[in-house]
Design goal:
The structure holds two protein chains of two kinds.
Chain A (H helix, E strand, L loop, with lengths): L39 H18 L7 H15 L22 H14 L1 H27 L2 H19 L5 H16 L6 H14 L6 H23 L2 H5 L2 H16 L8 H9 L19 H19 L6 H16 L4 H21 L3 H4 L8 H16 L2 H8 L5 H4 L6 H9 L7 E3 L2 H10 L5 E2 L10 H11 L5 H7 L4 E5 L4 H9 L3 E6 L3 E6 L4
Chain B lengths: L12 H21 L2 H12 L29 H10 L11 H11 L13 H9 L1 H8 L7 E4 L2 E4 L13 H8 L7 E3 L4 E3 H11 L8 H11 L6 E3 L5 E3 H9 L7 H20 L7 H21 L16 H4 L6 H16 L9 H17 L2 H6 L1 H13 L5 H11 L25
Helix pairs in contact in B: 4-5, 4-7, 4-17, 5-6, 7-9, 9-11, 10-11, 10-12, 11-12, 11-14, 14-15, 14-17
Classes of the chains: A mainly alpha, B mainly alpha.
Chain lengths: ~525, ~425
Amino acid sequence: MSAVLEKSDRPQSSEPAPTPELPDASVLEDRTPEWFRTTPTSALFVLLIGVVFALMANRPLWHTDLWDHLNYGQNILTTHTVSDTEPLLHLSRGVPMVNIPWLAQVSMAAVNNRFGLTAMQFGYAALIALSLAVIAFRSVRMSHSAFGGILACAIFLKVNLDQLLVIRPQLGGVLFYCVVVAWMLGRRKHSKLSWIGLPLMFALWSNVHGSFSMGLMLMGLAAIGRFGDVLVISKSLRVALLDRELHRTILLTQLCAAAVLLNPAGIAVYAEVLSFAGNSNLGSMFEWDALTLRSAQGQSAAAAALLAFMAIKLSPRRMRCGEMLAFVLTGLLATWSGRMLNWWAPFVGIIVGTHLIAAMRKTVAWLKNPEPGRATGLWTVVNLGLVWILFAFTSFGVQLIHGRIPDAQRLVSTETPLATVAFLDSTEDLPRGISFIPAEWAGYVMNRGPATVEPMVNLHVHVIPEQVWNDYIRIVNGPSDWEALMDEYGINMAVIDKDRQPGLARRIRESSDWTAQYEDSQAVVFFRDKRI
Amino acid sequence: MNAIRKPKKTVSLLTWLAVQLAFGGAFVASWLLLPGTQQQEVIAHISHRPYRLDVALQSEKPTVVESFYDDADVVSDEELAAVLKKILPRFSRDHLRPNLVEHALRTWGCQVEFTNPDIISGPQMQEFLTDMSKFVDSWGKNANPLMIESGDGIHVRYAEDRSGSVHHDHTLAALTEAGLSLDDPVFTTAREMHVRNIITEALRDFRLDERETEWSAMSFGLWLAPQKTTTWHNGEGRRLTFDMLAERLMRNRKRDGVCLGTHRVYSLMLLVRLNDQIEGQLISQETREQIMAYLASVRDLIIASQRPDGSWDSHWTDGAEAAEKSDPDEPMSKRVIATGHHLEWLSIAPVELHPPREQVQKAADWLIANVAATPQDEIDSSYTFYSHVGKALAMWRHTSPAAFWTQWRTTHPDCEIFDTPVKSEADPASETKTSH
């Protein structure tokens, strides 16, 4: 950045010089290139989103899905193959597996191998921050108010927080989805960037997460919405059908749908995403349950929905057909399964952020004439400074800058069975064969524990044979026939989560055939006395 | 004068065509690049139908695994004849249980003919199981048929009620061991189908983690080994191999299998024999070694657990501790099950897996004496267990019950005459309750 101070034309004086005046900075000419300049609003968002980012980047890694994905990624790195059958679980051998998020898994494993867990935290936080940035961008553009953007981000975070806590490739999907939402709600849908960027993004998306189907659905809704809008305005079916934007949206959707095929499983990813929700094993996963007002996320969603309806009702803005369709349809999906909140949250955030501001603008003085701050290079410098400061506050930043890596206990959630795995590692004569290990811990045990330990299941429940999963769920609850079920699988070692499986822990303690070998406040490990 | 470019109002036809070509071409190319198994998977997912079976059945008849031995010290002709006479299939035709017929059919085969009309011949037994009009004759019009058409397969009803088979794929195993061919007719209530349709459905609906896999493993081995098919995909698209089947059979406690854990031993031994018949192409060498180690441990257990009278009881898996764990009040049928079944698998096992021959002889002696001492009505009510005794003893003479009996009848024409008439359908409450 460079600036030139204009020459002063003030006359020289013989009197003793008073305290010299500071140069007038307002006369500085900003010579930074246009593309480099940013607005004060951007700095506000960098600060706010950056704080969220820094908090997330220092948050201990959630103990569930992450480890399974790292294990699959490591397997791909080791074998150089994306297996078309389940490659890790002994009881799932031969089960077909369309591993859509293979690229995310490989990336996670490679980053973990190179930088360790702090990089996982960093990547996790970065995906959330980028999603927020996209939502903020679109909301500010639509509402012409930074407050609208902040509101949209806050609602998105609150409604979707439970889903965002789990570290999995879905976070990549959420980011891509937010981009499609932003595209859908924007005015220039068919710029050169859209024609090139969106198909490329979908090609990447189909290798990262199955939610590309939601993206395609949105594009389809954009086309339907456009058709509806033109039909309502023109009242002519012919005009609506011949609308150029409708055609271009259809063509762009087709290109994106074709781009999805660029993945190792090809067209099979479509069959996979279409049949995934019908997998009977998912019925026992609470996160796939219908949304209920008894849950915190159900209450947040209900409050957000009420706010959205109120904002829409009061807003002078016309709601476009596609916007409404997407809002309602994704909302219905979310009521069907709580996990679908991911796809509703961006909409409800942006709709509230936009329409509420529009409604308030009639009465709130400071919202009436929004004047965007001037973009200058200085704000870009401020932004970069903020980014650097926030980066330095992350565990990953500390690791890169100072070479200090936090203790494992600080990097992973307290639910992670660190001590149990340390025990398994230190035990020489571990029972061979299938072991009963809580599905939530299986990934970590496989990743950090002895290679000889073979968990019965992990959290990739859709590739676990139905009988095996049903038996696992039965054992978890400590039924009277728990021992027969353990026998059925030749299980000689059981790792029990004392909080979640107290019934089973009690049953095994009562058995004369099993002995506790290790116990702490979190877990107890039993070995069968007479091994099968 | 500058010409003002009018904004386009429509997308050009060329653009439409180009995108449609790219779109359609991408999908077609992606489909063509997909391996055949994955194409089937996609079709199954989209159509919500089971995965199409990827095995072409070629062997007209299943292979046969014969006994290695002809040892008259284990059982003499007279002793064998006496035992076989007691397990001739003399069943009431009314409410005839498929389980009885299946055991009789696997023991006597589908060709055997008897001179006494009270005794059900092989073709009649086959007809009862494969022609649902005969089945309905026995069970009445309102009964559910045993065989139900299921697309291009036939589902055999099991584990539902007394008119069904008892175990998954037990009917198939019985038809297989009885020597039926692929194209033998099966008359469902809907249409004429064939034995191959039963096998097709069995291969498709088999689940590796179901509780009883003994008969499935045996049947699949006898049909698929001759054509050297070692892997297939079931209806869920899961890739299955005989290595996986073998490992499944060895997975849990030895005592937990059907018939006190003895059927899985037979199935494992059969897989090894089939593997050896096709020069080691059915299972991997590692699996073969695991099976042989498993069978050797069974051998050691039965050496240690044999009772002084020569029988084994339900505690055979406890080895040397069996004596102290044995329940003196245990029903005799359990000892018949354990002893009969052990002698059966030993007849197809190599000597290295045998206990000392004296122990085999003692076991056979106990069975022969037990059969002789047990009243006919008791044997009839426990027919399924005793049928294994007859089959096992015949195999120790390197023959089959049918072949031996047919030969025996030439010199003993009165051997099919009985003092007591055929008993009507047994009271369910009086039947031995041991699972079989």
